[in-house]
Each structure stands twice: as C-alpha cells, then as structure tokens.
Amino acid sequence: MSTILTVNNLTKKFGYLTAVKNLSFSIEKGNVYGILGPNGSGKSTTLGIILNVVNRTSGDFSWFDGQTSTHDALKKVGAIIERPNFYPYMTAIQNLKLVCKIKEVSEDKIQEKLQLVGLWERRNSKFKTYSLGMKQRLAIASALLNDPEILILDEPTNGLDPQGIHQIREIIKKIANQGTTILLASHLLDEVEKVCSHVVILRKGEKLYSGPVDEMLASHGFFELRTSDMDKLKDILDKHASFGKINQENGTLTAYLKQEMNAEALNKLLFDEGMVLSHLVKRKESLEEQFLALTKNN
Amino acid sequence: MVRLLQIEFIKLLNNRASKILISSYFVLLTSIALIAAIKFDIGPVKFHLADQGIFNFPYIWHFNTFMTALFKLFLAIVIVSMMANEYSNKTIKQNLIDGLSKKEFILSKFLTVISFSLISTVFVFVVSLILGLIYSDYNEISIIFSDLEFLLAFFVKLVGFFSFCLFLGIFVKRSAFALGFLILWAILEQIVFGLLGWKVMSWDAAKRIKDFFPLESMTNLIKEPFTRLSAVQNIGQQIGENMSFDYQVYWYEFLIVLLWTSLFIYLSYALLKKRDL
Asked: Which residues form the ABC transporter domain (chain A) (predicted)?
C-alpha cells in the first residue's frame, strides 16, 4: 500500500493562537479518511497547509513520498476548500477549461464529470447564476477533472439544503466506491460515519486519535436490556466481572462491557439465573458517542 | 510559458469589462491618427496640425510614444483589477490548490504585462509608421528608422508602470483602492520633491533625486516633445527664451525603471509567498 500524504509535527500559529499543534498522521492509498473536530479545531488550517495556501510555522509534510514538489503533487489531487471559488463571469465549461490548463490535463473529461454531478445541461450558464448546491457540485466536477489520486473535501455539505446535502453525499459515495482515496473534513458525524473507514480527530489543534473508525475507543460495546424485574437484573450484572458502568434510563438498562462477551452467552447466563429478557441488543458506540467521549474535556 | 499566458488570457478575454477596456485602449491608440485631421480654416488663418511637422520622421517616434503613453491608464485598470479580482473572488486560492505554484502565478501575470506592453509598442510603431509615410517631409530609410530608442523607452515605460499596478493590486487587494493608491503615490512623489527642494536641498539636487522615484523615472524616459517642434522653437527664440532642452533617452534612465520593475515583481512574489490565503 503506498502512502499518499505524510504529515510530521505540523504546527501553525496565528499570532498568539496555535491553530494546529504538532500534528502527525499519514494517509494510505485506497482508504476513506475523515478529519473530525468541532468548529475551530484546525481542520481547515491543516488542509490549507497541505494544499499550499497557508504557510506552516514548523513541521513538514510530503506528498507521494516526497518525490514531487507540492504544486506538482497538487495536480494529482482534487480539492475543495470551504466555498467553491470560480470566476463568476465565466460559464461552467470555461471555468473547467481553465482548471484543465492549470492542472495540465486534457479537456476530454469535462463532459463526463459535468454529467456525473448533473450539471451538463447548465454547462453554458455563468457561474454567478448557479445556486450554492450547483456551485458545490461544479467544484466537485472540477476536483475530479484529473481523476485525482486523492479527493480532499472540506465541509462539502455546509450551507446546503437537504436535497443538496443528499446529492453531494450520493456523489461522494459513488466516488468512494470507485476506489478513490478521500479525505473528508467535517463536523457532521453521520456524514463521516457513512463513508469513512479511518478518522483523524482534532481538538484545539491537537490530535486526539487517528486510525480505523472501529478501533477508536478500546471498547467492547454494550448491551441494552429490558425485563420485568429491573432491580434484580442490575444486581446480577453488578456482581458480574465482565460489566463496568451500568445505566438505567427510560426503563432500559445499558450495561457496558469490560471484556468481550456475546449476546448468546449473556442470555444463557441470565436464563440460568431465572431471568427472562423482553429486550436484548448488543451494540457498539456510534461515531457520535465515541467522538463526544473523546473530545470531552478530559 | 505559453500555458501561463493561455491561463491568463482565458481569465481576461471571458471578462466583458476587461474586453471593453482593452479594445477601447487600442482604439484610442489608433485615434492618435485623428490629430492629423485637426485643421483650422478661418479666413486668412489657415492651420493644419499635420503640416506643422509633428508627423515628420524621426520626430514622430518621440511625439507618438509620448502621447499614446497617456492612454496607459486604461490598461492599468485592467491589470489592477485582474489582480485584485483574484483576491475578491478567492480564485487565487483555487488556482494554487489546483496546482499552480506561487511563482507561476506571478509569472503568468508578469507575462501578461509584458505582452500588453509589447503589443502596444508594435501597435504604436505601425500606426506611427503609416502616419509618417503619409505626412512626413522626409522619407529616406535612414531617417525613418532613426531615434527608434523612443519605442524601446515606450516599451520599458509600460512594463514598469504595469508592474507597479500589478504590485498595487496584490498589495491592496481591492481594485478601486489600488487605483486610488496609485494616484496618491503620484501626488506623494511631487510633495516629497517639493519638500526636498524647498527645505532640504537645492532645487537642482532635488530634481536629480526625483528622477529616481518610480513614477517620475518612468515619466522621464520619454520627455515632453512639444518644445522640440520648430514652430514652438521659433516662438521661443522670438521671446528670447533659451529652448535647448535635452530630449535624449539615457541608458541609466532605462536602468532605474528596470530596477523598479524587478523590485515590484519581486515584492509581489514575496508578498504572495508570505501571506496566508
């Protein structure tokens, strides 16, 4: 597996404010990465640095194992940062032709990419006449013109209406299925959960976690249980070595596992104790719960 | 290099405002020919400007380059706004993300400046040559192609001036403010000159220092041509004024402008490199 991007001890200071602090991570080909973090956690700054528009204070980064200069590497990258930026007085086609010239790729892909994002019919309209959703889709088409090795998206659904959000997500899923490496920065967790295999989690410019989504918390999941005699159930679980924290809420008992245990084993155990369950679900924490657990001020 | 120019021309020629400004600039360059039509014919007073020798070779090179340089303000607007708009549309950010390096970005703008200046120079050369061939009293090849350094001076003057505009566009980031700054700068040069001559040193020394100011050094490349006209000279002699001015273009005057030009381009690059977008 080849490395697309390596970031080493990257730091960015804006005056007294440290936007990114000693950040290190790497991106391997073929995975879909999410950069997660609350607003102002340094996501956009990090992307700005690796995309050559923000100067770093210290640390370094290298594209494709450092074999090419940053601006040449960027020709193999497709990236959209925050708002779509195009020449307002030019049509979609004219704007994309300009991007082709900058990226030094042929113009044959323009039609294919505009069709992919559903803008082919509006190809001759000026950019300034587009709605925000259309602008964002044109930005995606533009980022795909060179069939990039990696697609970088910064808050791609920000400010869009539900249809717009849905359209963009469908496009991202389509691209992910084609095997393109994607780096998606977002504070919308369900968005990341749906497409990403790996995450980097930032808070106040510091990395809290980077790795596969399902290894984020060293957790064995939890059970949601319901029965007629909740107190007795709680007693039994309290005494059992496998369980840690136990919460009771809205008539449902949530028991967190300290070690691995499957649902069948628990069911058998309780049945042997004379308890019959009306509800038994084993779950892992959702990304949102894991994220909140990690970014809690600890 | 061709790629960088193509990039810049896609941006410019799809913009209606700059298209109009560029074409009116070239129309104005041609309009210098209209001076030939200035004719007063009031009874006994007959005056035909074209007959006064302004279209004589080699004087025409001096006169036309001086007059047409006044129209450079039109292109200055185009150049300032092509730079400032990259900031206001944030397209400069997108250009860099798409894989243009900062050096290439500045280079593409500078190449545009060079091409504008070059096209203008060729244009003025052709228009003057035609006008001269029609009206000039002297048509020997050696006379026609003498004093051509005025065309070179014209070219260098435009490159220097447009580079200054380019720098202002990057520095100020807003086209209207950048143009305001340009005017302010021109006034500032005169005020500094005035203060120097008035308080600090002799007027002669102040004049010599003034020749080093960016805008003044550009003006200085092509000095005013009017006092060189024989009609004006005659009047001067009649009223006893000594009219022996120096109209030559000197190598060090080129050097000063070229130094400013490289400084402006370097500063634009340094500024772009240092700024976070």
From this structure: 5-229
